[in-house]
Amino acid sequence: MKQILALIAILAAALLVSGCLAGKYMSGYALTPEPHGVADIERTRAKADSLCPGSTAWYDGLKAQGVLKDTFITGYRDFRVHACYVPAKDPAEAQGTAIVVHGYGDNHYVFLYLVRMYRDELNYNVLFPDLQYHGYSEGDHIQMGWNDRLDVEKWIEVAHGIFQDDFMVLHGVSMGGATVMMTSGDELPEYVKAFVEDCGYSSVIMQFNNNRKQSFGFIPPDVLQSASLVSKMRYGWGFWEASSLKQLEKCDRPMLFIHGDADDFVPTSHVYKNYEAKVNGYKELWVAPDAVHANSYAKHPMEYTQRVRDFLNKVKKM
Question: Which structural domains are found in the chain, ordered by start?
Answer without folding.
Answer: 32-203+242-316 (3.40.50.1820)
